[in-house]
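can u pls check wat happens w/ zinc ion
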Amino acid sequence: MSFDADFSYAFYEALVRKVQESYEICPLRDVNADIVIAADDVPRAYWRHDIDVCLSAALQMAKLEANLGISSTFMFIPNSLLYNISSSEGRDILCQIRALGHEVALHFDISETGLSEADCEDELRLIDEIVRQAEFIGEIVGEDVKSVSFHRPLQMFIRGPSNLGGLINAYAAELMSFYISDSKGGWRNGNPLEVVSAATTNVAQILTHPVWWAPTHLSAKETLKNFWETSSVGLSKTGSDDLAEKIRKTVPGVTLQLV
Ligand SMILES: [Zn+2]
């Protein structure tokens, strides 16, 4: 049963410590050429954050993790409907996250690329676009981007090749033997502390979305509503309606209730 009872920073820290009982926490850039970890090596948990909604939540999470002594991967959508990584604020946040020791990488949203359905069937065309977006982020942070994850994952790349255009594919088969995520503000397989305790693989991957996490617990619905209210300040009725639509389009799995 999905677990959504605690998205506080205290619980996040407890999860980090639980994972560290069995794994070394690493960013995706540390994936080595063959991914597979030898039986006598320390098992690795690759920890990534897909940034779907909000840059400031990503920065807060990056600071929290730096305080906990870990590095992970923060993945951004260059053509996001909800934030702008090329604004001066956006650039500053990405550079701060990198300076905290984290990896800054690409979260690829096919729906905003302008590619047609026919284009999407052409793997090379898609990979060209992925590489182009990775270079865009690389220019912002002054460092080559090494990894890609997918917002609304493309079937052709799930449990697929480990390398896409020179980037590590977060959905590579080898990275998904143990894979848990807080998508839609819930852990689908139950309390992650218990799920991690039962893990037996040498390679694990953990996906979190910083927007769901806060100093004190809030439900995903409350979080999205708060985000909409805060971001709507100063907008016209049309502007705030438009923003609500963008939130619904970006996070379709969580109902945005405005009344
Ligand atoms: Zn996403």
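The chain has a mean pLDDT of 93.
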